[in-house]
Every structure is written in structure tokens, then in C-alpha cells.
Amino acid sequence: MKRPGGELATRPLHFIWICDCSGSMATDGKIQSLNNAIREVIPHMLKVADENPNAEVLVRAISFSNGAHWHLGQPTQIADFKWTDLTANGVTDLGKALSMVAEQLKMPPMTDRALPPVLVLISDGQPTDDFESGLQELMREPWGKKAVRIAIAIGEDAAHDVLEKFIGNSELKPLQANNPEALVAHIRWVSTAVLKSASSPASQAAGAVSPGGNVPLPPPPPAGPSSATDVW
Amino acid sequence: MSDQPLKSEWRVIGKSVRGAAHVRSGLPNQDRISWTPESGSVLPLIVSISDGHGSNKAFRSDTGAELAVRAAQSISRSFLTSQTEPLNHSTIKRWAEENLPRELVRHWQNDVADDLTSKPFTKAELDQLQAKENAEKCRQVVLNPVLAYGATVLTAIITESYILYIQLGDGDILAVGEKGEVSRPLPRDERLFANETTSLSSEKAWLDFHTHFQVLSSLPPALVLLATDGYANSYRNDPEFLKVGPDILAALRSDGVEKVNEKLEEWLVDASTNGSGDDITVGIVCRLDALKAPPASPSDVKTQSPESNHACAKPPLLAKTQVLPADTEKTILSHKSTKNHLTKTDPT
After folding, report:
1. Is 0.90 exceeded by the ipTM?
2. CATH number reported for the structural domain that contains residue A62 in this entry
3. Which residues of A touch B (CB under 8 A)?
4. A204 pairs with which residues across the strands?
């Protein structure tokens, strides 16, 4: 007797890096620190993905400066994920990037059996385009609204109000990185702890879920006091 | 067309398996299944399944699921014995829609209260909650401990003259005709998305129930399948999942009920391991005379939800009436949903 039903499949979990590549990211080694941090966490992401074979983690990356473009447009399994260095130059068209992400979160190509996507925004400055329109486009999509949205602020000049609007969850603040070590710690947290939570299929009672609360997140790494190692 | 009841023999089988992800993380099976009568072969039949949420806050949801199927069975039996006019379908339907969900929720809440009285939250349970959730979430559970028991409930009541389908929360009920055609008696609820589900633990949960009352006049479904969401989530898309209907019907015809019952656990474990990783529970009610019919070719069978995306594949409310020939059944104002909006008051 054959097993009933058609093709079985694990549940896709889309993980999207949204990276600021504006000119200011070229100063004080920010963009290279970002490149190094993402490259460094790939083995940790692979370990988390291996621990939960029922979630198919698919990584993408989009960069924004003068406009936005998919740095890694094809949803890529962690095992095949290799990071190509980003370079920084131009303005900060975050709205365009969010609009392009929103397009990818439509159903289809997404399916409703997916696990909530994880969107990680990393930025050091103020948007120069219509950020609000891009965010609205994102939040119009059911998966945009239900995505786990994390923001990492690089340096003191980052637009915290913009990052908080992107997160849309009063219980979760942007993660502040004022030096390369902090950036690595934050990126490791989203790549491991957040990824692990998002890949767990526990249900939540709909009425008791706060915005962004459909995936309970572990506590983020401590921000730590300002230190002499702060360079941004 | 006569409304006289048919004399068919039915049989219930079912299994519940612990999800592959639960095995890895040491979590128990948080699904439950129950049916009445225990023999699963004498009408009226009542089949209930439940899926405990398993979230950090719902740390007693395995008990919540157990209490859910018990409440569903108890209230359904009371519902059946209270019918003084078994063929007065309008009255029965109205009572089912208006009273049954509220009675079921009340019964479940009372059982939860009893469980809490006999087994108050332990320090270990609360410590574990505090380790995983922030202070506000912990406060919500302490103030409203019923949240710890959150669970769904799906039930089918099969009598000689009608079938009543009841659902709160995620999961699937499929009706399969003699030719293998599949339909969903209840519509998909768009709120059931991204790990969120309506729940017995929600405020005014009875408003979130969906019910469907189907009068059986000549040809009832060949089988009715109830499944927790871990089953559908294990398939590539909805059409791939819907193939389980005709495939199980074909297996019942070719190999018999006992053989299918023996294989069911293996199938569900395979689905969880290579699919969602979630607990999976399936209850199957089959009409024995339909198993004697010539077998349908499973792969050729058309399903009622052709789109691959659940949220996009919104079947019409009267999906069933579109699938079967007009004289095979009679639906009285087929479907009832008491609440269709997203906004709910947070119980906290």
C-alpha cells in the first residue's frame, strides 16, 4: 500500500538580509565589517538549519543605495549559501528595497504553509527615498505583516525611528552596533536564535498575539555600555 | 427526493503520532483523538480531534487537547440525546449552530478550571515560562491561566440522516465522494495563518466556530477525514494534500479497513518526518457499502481546491453542493460561521 497523498515537503523559511550600501557605509570599515560578520555566521546558520530538518531555510540578500537590487536573488539553501562582498556607494533608497521585498512575499510565489519569513534590516543612516511607501507595500502583504522583522543600527547616526517603524513591535527595539564585535554578536543572534525560533512550528492563539508576536523571540544580546572600542 | 434516512454501516479508524520535531526537542504529542462509540461502527458516530498549540504560553496544551476532545464528545452526545425530533433538521441545525459551540467551550473551560484546581501551576512550569517569555507574557498567563491549555477542536457527528461538522482553529475536514472527489465542508479561515489559530482559550471562543450541517438524503460521503494541521503542512501544496482523500478511499477498497488502520501510523510518521515535523492526528470515518464500489483511479480524481495556495484557494461556502450530483444530498443553509473579522480583544 503506498502512502496516501502527493509529494511531501518540509516547510520553507525565507531569510532575507536587507543591507544598507550607501556611501556612509564605506567609512570606518562598516561595509567590510558587515561582509565579515555575515560570512562568519554562515556555519552557525547551517548548524541551526541542520538541527531542524523540517524547515527548509532559504537565504536571500538585497542591497540598497542608489535604488535597490537583489544581491542574492535566488532563494538559496544554507548549504549552498556563499557570501559575496557588498560595496558601498550612493544614497539610501530603503523604500525601494522594502518594495522589492514585498513583491517577493506575495502569494504566490509564497505559499501559506511557509514558516514566517525573517527579514533583517541593517542600516547606518536616514532613508533618502519614500521609505513610508515601501513599508506600506511590505505591510500590505500578509507575509510582510507576519514576518519576523529585525533591525540592526550601525553607529549613532542610524535612523532609529525608521528602524522602529520597520520592526513594528514595541517590545523589540533596534539592535545597536557601535563596533565590529557588537555587529557580529547581533548578526549571530538573528542568524541562530531568531532563526531557530522561526523554524519551530508552535501555534499561538490568534487573539493573544501582539504585532510581530507570532514568533516568540529569545532575549537579544545585551547592548553593552559605550566603550573605547566604539568606532561608529 | 425523499428525506428518509439511509441505513448505512460506518467504521471509524484513527491515529495520532508525535511529530518528528517534538521527538527531537523532547516535547510530548500535543494532539488528541477520540471517538464514540468505542467500537467505531454503530451510528451515531462522533469523531473529535484536537491540536494543543505548543507555544511557550500554552505549556499545558497537551492536557488542553485532551480536555477538548472529551468536551466535544460529551457535548455532542448530549446534543444527540436531546433531539426529540431526529428528523426535524431545521431545529437540530439551529441548535447546533447557536448552542453547541457555546456549550462545548463552557464544558472545556470548566474542565480546565478543575484541572487547575487539582494541579495548580508548578514553580518549574512558571520558571520555564519566565525563561522563555518576557514579563508581560508571563503576567498574561498568570492572570488568565486558561491560555496555558490553548487547543483547537474539530468534530464530525454522523447520524443516519445528517452529518454535522464543527471546527475551531486550524486543521482540515475533508469529505470524499464515491468517485473519489474531495471537498471541504467548511471554508478555510484566513485568520489561520503564520502560526496563528483561533483557539478554545480565546475570549468568546464560541464565536470563532465554523459549523456545517449536511442532510443525507440518498448518497452520503464515502469517507470523512479529520486531520490536525501538521498533516496538510507536510505536503508540497494543497492539491498534493487533497490527494489523500481518494488515495485512502482506494486503499480502503483494495486492502480493507483493518490493513489501512495498521498502516496509518506508519504513513503519519513518514509525513511528519519528511514534512512539517509537527504532531499529526487523523480520524477517518468510512461508509462500508461505499467500499464495495469499483475503485476510483486515485491519480485521476479531481479535487475541489485546484490552487496550490491555501489562502488563495478559498472554496465557496457551499463547496460540497458543487461537487456531488444535485440529488445526492440536501444542504440546509449549509454553512454557519459566527465571526468573520480579525479583530479580537486580547484576553489580557
Report:
1. yes
2. 3.40.50.410
3. 1-11, 51-55, 107-108, 111-113, 115-116, 142-143, 146, 171, 200-210, 214-216, 218-219
4. B196
